[in-house]
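Aggregate trends can hide what the representation actually does to any particular protein. For completeness, the protein is quoted in full, as a sequence line and a line of structure tokens.
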Amino acid sequence: MPAAQAAPDPDLTVSQVTLDRTSVAVSGLNTYPVNVTVKGGYHSGNSSDDHAVLNVYLERTGGTGGRQDIVSTDLKRTGGTIENGTWTGRLNVASTANGTFKVTGVALGPYGAPVAGTPYDVTPYAGQTLTVRGTNQPRITAAVNPRVVPWGKPYSITWAVTNSATGKPYGTRVPIGLGVDVPCAEGGSPMYRTGTNGLIAKSYTAADGDLLNCAHIYTDPYYIAGQWISVARPAIVSAAPAKAAAPVGSIVPVNGSVYHVTRSCPVQLQRLYGASQWRTVGTGNLRTSGRFTLNAQPAYKGPIPYRAYFPACSSVVAGVSKTFYIRGT
């Protein structure tokens, strides 16, 4: 069942959102601070909300860059009352926001990057457009060692931060968050620094390989560049025919499994033609148990070589079973 659609916070009203600039230029790892003012009110009637903060949201309307939306810092109330007040603060604009963005709404903070810390949708507000000229945008890449990580074995990742325009590092020690699993979706990755060559190598446990790995470069309160990866895994395929011999033209079930794969990935039954040409003669899909059943049909009398072939699926690379034989009779 799909999740129920949230609704805007009924206690939040917004009468005005103002940016003190509508055009900025920003390069590399820098950010440009744009002053933001919100006029509105929060009508919960709860005194604990007197120090409530707000966040302004902007969504991309044109151009290309690594960010599809940007968010202000937590805006604090600097005038009026909680029910009829003024909130001010900054919007930190990154080079990866290259393009045009439009103010689309306001929400009660604090913002828990990269997921908003509120059960409500953003309260809509059609506001100003901000044009960003972003250059020398940062790019994060990952080199996993070994390239295909054996199941149950540790590994390492060398993360690289480079200037996407030049392909070279920035020559500074870049603060970078490196996370596993939950922080990759909700923020809060432990922080490190790259070398001046833009590289940082990190060791990971065997268990980390079953989870999402990520790297982020942050500004307050969101990430300006990120990379998410699932490490490549080997396909360990086993297969065996239900019968070692069968009449020509009859159906012989071939049962097998792919280790640690529970997705409905395709599997192929292949037969050897000539000395080295394997051709697909049957297809099927993995069950959630990781097992599969394919149907072989001996085409002639004598031993016929078969194998099960697993095409690359998700983060698991392609693999084959050992060759097995069915004797046509």
The radius of gyration is 28 Å. Residues 182-186 form the longest helix (5 residues). Confidence is low (pLDDT under 50) at residues 113-117. The helical segments are 182-186.
